[in-house]
Amino acid sequence: MNGPGPARRPQTTIFTRMSALAQRHGAVNLGQGFPDESGPSRVIEAAAEAMRQGHNQYPPLAGIPRLREAIAAHQRHWYGLEPDPDGGVTVTAGATEAIAAAMLALVEPGDEVVAFEPFYDSYKACVEMAGGVLVPVRLEAPNYRPDLDRLRAAVTDRTRLLLVNTPHNPTGTVLTRGELEAVAALAIERDLLVVTDEVYEHLVFDGHEHLPLAGFDGMWDRTLTIGSAGKTFSVTGWKIGWASGPAALVERVQAVKQYLSFASGTPFQHGVVEALASDDAYYREFAADYRRRRDLMVAGLADIGFTVREPEGTYFVTCGIEPFGAEDGLEFCLDLPERCGVVAIPTQVFYADGAVARPEVRFTFCKPVPVLEEGLARLRAGMRG
Ligand SMILES: *Cc1c(COP(=O)(O)O)cnc(C)c1O
C-alpha cells in the first residue's frame, strides 16, 4: 500500500504480506486481528441449520428482516438508540463494505474527511476511491488521546464528514464522554456528517464505557453508525456488518452497496440473528476473557522490554520499540518472524504517510492464552539475543 502508483488504486496490504511471512517461518501470528477460535457453537449451528433449511440464495438488499430487527433491538438495548429496521438499518459485507459504501455515498470529489490517526487502513483507501482527501488528526504517543484543538483546526470549509473509530484500532483508546461531547459539538457547529466505526463496541475494559456518537444531543440525524458481528462473535470470516441511522443516510449507503456486493452471506445473516440474541452474560464474559488476555500481553511485553500503553478497548496493544534501539517498526516487523518466530504489524501502515518509519508495532491478543504465552516466550528468547 506504500508503493508508487495512482493513489486511487490501492496495493497489497501489509496484512497479506505479514501473514505470508508468518506461514513461511511457522511464526506465531500476532499480526492480523482474527481469533483462532470460532464463535459460540449455537451461533455456528444456526448458520449451518440455515444452510440445511435452504437459506442459500440472495438475501434482500438491506439484509434479512429478522437480522435488521435484531440489529435495531441491539442498538436499543445497549444504547437506547432506535433505528427503524425498515429503512434505518442495512446489512453489509462486513464493516469494511459499510465503510466503503458510506464514503462512496457521502463524499464528493474534493471533500475532506477528518479522522484520527493512526486509522484503520481501509479509511484512506475508501476516501480516496470516492475522490476525497483524508485529513489526519494525530493521537500522540504515549497516551493516544485526541487533541480537540487540533481536531477543530483540521476542519475547513471543505470538510464533509468526521470518520470516528472508538474503541480505536490500533491504539486501544476508548473516547470518553467528554471527548465525544466535544466531537459532537464540533460536528453540529460545522454541520458535518459523522460516520462511526464501532466494531469493538463490546471490547471495552475496566471502567471504560463505549458510547455511540449517534446518541448525543443533535447527532442522530447526521450520524451513520457502523457495527459488525466479526469481532464480537469471533466470526470474522462471515463478513456480516451493518450500518444504522436515519433513513436518509442509510438509503444513500444502500444505493451504493447495491453495486458493490449487492447483498451477501444469507446463512451467516441467520447465524448473526442467533448471535445478537445473546444474553448480557455473553458480552460480559467476552470482555472479561479478553481483559485477561490483555493483562497477560501487557505484562509480558513490558517485562520483555517494550514500551507498553495498556489498551482501554479492542484486542490490540501498540508498543514502542525504542528500548531495543529500534526506530523503524516496518524493519523490526519484517525481521521478527525469522528472529523470534512471531509476527506483529508496524503501526506506520495506519498513518496517512505510511512510508515514514515509526518506532511502534502492534500485537493482537485475540489468540488463545497458550498461543499468547508461546508468542511471549519466543519474543523473550529472541529479543535477548
Ligand atoms: C476489523 C475492523 C473492521 C472490519 O470489520 P469487518 O466486519 O471484518 O469488515 C473495520 N474497522 C476496524 C477498526 C476494524 O478493526
Automatic annotation (TrEMBL):
<keyword id="KW-0663">Pyridoxal phosphate</keyword>
<dbReference type="GO" id="GO:0016212">
    <property type="term" value="F:kynurenine-oxoglutarate transaminase activity"/>
</dbReference>
<dbReference type="InterPro" id="IPR004839">
    <property type="entry name" value="Aminotransferase_I/II_large"/>
</dbReference>
<dbReference type="InterPro" id="IPR051326">
    <property type="entry name" value="Kynurenine-oxoglutarate_AT"/>
</dbReference>
<protein>
    <submittedName>
        <fullName>Pyridoxal phosphate-dependent aminotransferase</fullName>
    </submittedName>
</protein>
<dbReference type="InterPro" id="IPR015424">
    <property type="entry name" value="PyrdxlP-dep_Trfase"/>
</dbReference>
<dbReference type="InterPro" id="IPR015421">
    <property type="entry name" value="PyrdxlP-dep_Trfase_major"/>
</dbReference>
<dbReference type="Pfam" id="PF00155">
    <property type="entry name" value="Aminotran_1_2"/>
</dbReference>
<feature type="domain" description="Aminotransferase class I/classII large">
    <location>
        <begin position="28"/>
        <end position="376"/>
    </location>
</feature>
<keyword id="KW-0032">Aminotransferase</keyword>
<keyword id="KW-0808">Transferase</keyword>
<dbReference type="GO" id="GO:0030170">
    <property type="term" value="F:pyridoxal phosphate binding"/>
</dbReference>
<dbReference type="InterPro" id="IPR015422">
    <property type="entry name" value="PyrdxlP-dep_Trfase_small"/>
</dbReference>
<comment type="similarity">
    <text>Belongs to the class-I pyridoxal-phosphate-dependent aminotransferase family.</text>
</comment>
<dbReference type="GO" id="GO:0005737">
    <property type="term" value="C:cytoplasm"/>
</dbReference>
